């Protein structure tokens, strides 16, 4: 049974303004998994090599058997910058853009969120989170790792 | 031309004015600089039989050939990777002449990159889109994260190097100041007569905080540059002193890509430039100390440091100190980007730096190095050694 209340309904969350990724056929499963808040990586079905960016053939054994496996989502900040000018489209405040070194050995460009500009540190430990984009998609971002 | 090995040389260079609004089509810029290169060499444009440009150039070979009245084109090719193609055009022209396939190879790059579209803007508002071969792979994996411009990709590529060796933005300022000093003395440079101080550099706005300021970034320019490559033998009979292409090569090591170059093993080095260096020194039997000047692709200042180290002019981590102590100056160990570079002269996608390499060998640079025998020209993924005949 619901109870009437005087508190107004929470305002609708603002519409996401982050640009959605360009999705190519070879990277489709990666972005579709991100929409489901799953952070996956490509692993060779024959030799087990992790690769990024996604590709149809394993560069080590040339296998076409690619497996999409869930990654730990843990990594470190390998390189970073704060884009100031021109102001990045779709961001209210400049994001921290970073190359994340993932536990599985591959790297990915992403954002570090939940960290003040003066708190970002080289090689700091981060873990995956997700943020919405325009057109109802989601992209993996990284926040400071839980202690 | 017989199909025997034929030595190649640069016989002509040509360019339009460098501006922010050319007021004419890119095809016209291409035609004007191509004609200027042919005039410089003393050959008729009708006799061009090979044409090379960048995949990203908007002018069509046939349309340009129609302007120039090219009678019978024997070879056309385009090179991928944005500005990385600059020195690779010389490489391919050399190979075409070496193989006895062409007599007169025209290289061109012409663009209204400031007035018609801008590489330095968010991709939302411009024509730039993902196309294979155009060095736009960064759009796939960077744009949703707010890394939307070449400066953002370049900063991310250079940051770990800067962190490892403690290179500060102020250190980069010495490159900017030196190049602007060269540009200030170069009547063709956009920044002719406009030198800067280190304080000007430090007062310019952040583009990528805390790594790149405005004065660390190449310009956005309109203009065209063309180079005419022929056989050394034929060049000797033409108008200018021949500029020999002693060696030239390209190198794209595994997992390396243009500018959004984050996937190879060690982000504190530039493996593509190391690969170019290794092949160039082997091809020519020369060493860094045999170069009297260098033109090094400087879309952003830190990439000059990475290339100075890759080519062996400095040990790892020592390039910033080399520059600070005047290493790039006319009286330094390696006068570098003596036209003012892409920051000081103009950004014609590196081709204006190739032309400056030619001028140094001819002895016609506005900032002429004394007693030049060999000049290195590098666009990161490709390089060439130009030499006196």
Structure explained in plain terms:
The complex is a heterodimer of chains A (147) and B (389). Chain A is 5% helix and 34% strand. Chain A is mainly beta and 147 residues long. In chain A, the strands form 2 sheets. Chain A has a 5-stranded antiparallel beta sheet. In chain A, strands 2-1-3 form a 3-stranded antiparallel beta sheet, with helices on one face. The longest helix of chain A is centred in the N-terminal third of the chain and has 8 residues, at 28-35. Chain A is globular, with a radius of gyration of 18 Å. Chain A starts with 27 loop residues before the first helix and ends with a strand. Chain B is α/β, with parallel strands linked by helices. Chain B has helices spanning 26-41, 61-68, 85-98, 138-142, 150-165, 169-184, 198-203, 232-235, 271-284, 302-310, 319-324, 341-344, 351-362, and strands spanning 8-15, 50-54, 75-79, 105-112, 206-209, 212-213, 222-231, 243-250, 293-296, 374-378, 382-388. A 9-stranded mixed beta sheet of chain B has the order 3-2-4-7-1-8-11-10-9, with helices on both faces. Chain B is globular. The mean pLDDT of chain B is 95. Classes of the chains: A mainly beta (147), B alpha/beta (389). At the A-B interface, β4, β5 and β6 of A face α4, α5 and β5 of B. β4 of chain A pairs antiparallel with β5 of chain B.
List the helices and strands and how they pair.
The complex is a heterodimer of chains A (147) and B (389).
Chain A: H1 28-35, E1 40-44, E2 50-51, E3 66-70, E4 74-83, E5 96-102, E6 107-112, E7 125-132, E8 138-144
Antiparallel strand pairs in A: 1-2, 1-3, 4-5, 4-7, 5-6, 7-8
Chain B: E1 8-15, H1 26-41, E2 50-54, H2 61-68, E3 75-79, H3 85-98, E4 105-112, H4 138-142, H5 150-165, H6 169-184, H7 198-203, E5 206-209, E6 212-213, E7 222-231, H8 232-235, E8 243-250, H9 271-284, E9 293-296, H10 302-310, H11 319-324, H12 341-344, H13 351-362, E10 374-378, E11 382-388
Parallel strand pairs in B: 2-3, 2-4, 9-10
Antiparallel strand pairs in B: 1-7, 1-8, 4-7, 5-6, 8-11, 10-11
